[in-house]
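yo

u said u wanted the structure for the complex thing, so here. seqs first:
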Amino acid sequence: MTTEAFSFSLLATDGMARRGEVKTPHGLVRTPAFMPVGTQATVKAMYPEQVRELGADVVLGNTYHLMLRPTAERVARLGGLHTFMNWQHTILTDSGGFQVMSLAQIRKLSEKGVTFQSHIDGSRHEMTPERSIEIQGLLGSDIQMQLDECLRLPAERKEVERAMQLSLRWAERSRAQFEKMGGPGKGRGLYGIVQGGDVADLRVASAQALSQMPFEGYSIGGLAVGEPQDVMLRMLEITTPVLPTTKPRYLMGVGTPDDIVESVARGVDMFDCVMPTRAGRHGLAYTRFGKINLKNARHADDPRPLDEESSCPGARTYSRAYLHHLIRAGEGLGGMLLTWNNLAYYQSMMQGIRDAIEAGRFADFKAEVKEGWAKGDLPALG
Amino acid sequence: MTTEAFSFSLLATDGMARRGEVKTPHGLVRTPAFMPVGTQATVKAMYPEQVRELGADVVLGNTYHLMLRPTAERVARLGGLHTFMNWQHTILTDSGGFQVMSLAQIRKLSEKGVTFQSHIDGSRHEMTPERSIEIQGLLGSDIQMQLDECLRLPAERKEVERAMQLSLRWAERSRAQFEKMGGPGKGRGLYGIVQGGDVADLRVASAQALSQMPFEGYSIGGLAVGEPQDVMLRMLEITTPVLPTTKPRYLMGVGTPDDIVESVARGVDMFDCVMPTRAGRHGLAYTRFGKINLKNARHADDPRPLDEESSCPGARTYSRAYLHHLIRAGEGLGGMLLTWNNLAYYQSMMQGIRDAIEAGRFADFKAEVKEGWAKGDLPALG
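structre next:
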């Protein structure tokens, strides 16, 4: 069996904004793309068919969570992550490094990798660049990430530089392991991850060094970790011009709708974020008119839907009064409907972004969506 | 506008088992019927469209919960419970009495009614037969219940008799209020509730007295409250023959699949129970082969679906290993899929019951489903 190579096609550009297509063993990913987060092999509170119907071409799985439960070996025995979670489209996995540093207990970093204890049962594990790639291969991930070290900001320049240099050495080791496991031959891709915190010259150095390595794509890590939005955007402005135009660029863990349109304007192609799913379970709705907190008492008697023009039943069919009731009563359907609404809004925004770039009117589109958010929610009736 | 009268048609009988049809302002209810429980205006972890697609003609709403939150007056302002919860089919409501006695704090019973404090915020409320019917009318319920007093078993005969007699006096008052609110003219029905605990002559006396009152249907309450199944079935055997054959009979809060087929065999037409929904959220699956506990480690590597012959994706599409993972990981999708499976199994069983009665082979059907449950789950592979 011949598997076609992983590829990226640039279909159109509009300023720095790019409209493209990533080809993986599980289909085409239209970019700019938003990837719903499926941490534990499920996009929380959603059936996979719903996620697909909203227009998602790819979901993200978390290596750290999956290696601990149900374990990568078990997923492999069961036919891989696509079959396990009933998602026969593209899957991107992170390296596990970010969660090891943020969730695991008693972690110890060395040149070799990180040892840590599971947050679930305290069991001891070792994560190295090689092991991360091995796990991602067992999961059957189409788009894999090198292991890196991601610092929280603010951090000292010296510390940022050390972590960035370590990440470059881990990039080499990750790549070697990916080749050894036949990743490219299976049509899979491995992305290198740009680090460098909020230090401009370190970001450039990281991006330049990675560009010399044969990755299928480039991630921008270590942003949206506590710094102001303008810092993040400045880092993008100096990073994306250094990256090869022929490869997709993925801004990890970002972000709000505003973060996304601003990052697309700076040449980013792929995004993932827990916001639409997490916020949904907590009663927050993303809409054309900005964010709406359904917990607020002003919705208790409001018969209007979230957005009657939406094609998503979660947004169109149920009253705000009902959503308010469900969230207040702690009913699962509240999170199901708001997550549905939020992912629908994110995916429709991505479609709008893609259409606008193709039509050469991305700047206008960006201004229009911002105007909608600024307008805010319509006042309650009565 | 003329609304047709609430009606019950007996289409076929097979022994004591009855195949019928209840007509309400929101459609036909095929009996024997199982009513999924939608306590707080939602069948937990299910979209209403799914509930309908599984074959449910009616869902149950809990008056106690809804009167406290979002309140009956608010639901009425928002267009009634059908619109509020996006269920344009029949809704049955209980009287609230059972939950007042089991959930509320500091309750005080008198001839007039019950005063109690909300389990949500401690606020004081009064529930009388008149207020219960008023609330059910505000909700827009198609099938309403008289207020009654439901005792837990075992209980002394004297106490059982007192509660039964009180319930009869409340039946009269409930009926008067229902007439006053124009219930019959709106095509709605009010059911009287047979009480009498596990005391045969009190059950008969209750059923006889209620049969003299003009109810659209008869509920059998105060069973499945701690007594063995054979006691419950004996009570049914002496109760249903006393009730008018021309009215539907509803066994409240029952039950397991076995309880249901045995009760149908004794002349019951309608059922409700939280088991399929609650069990689903706790990792238990109802299937043709009995109950399966997905938490059990034996499922961790099992690639088989729950039931590949089921028409429900929750039963057919996902492996037991995946369901096991979701439940262990506390993922909402686990409860969503298992609830879906369980309600699908219950509704397919009801369809089987209805078909069997029409075909005059209900006894055979009962033997067959029991054989399946007794066979138990297939052993794991490997």
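Chain B has 15 helices and 16 strands. The two ends of chain B are 65 Å apart (CA to CA).
cya
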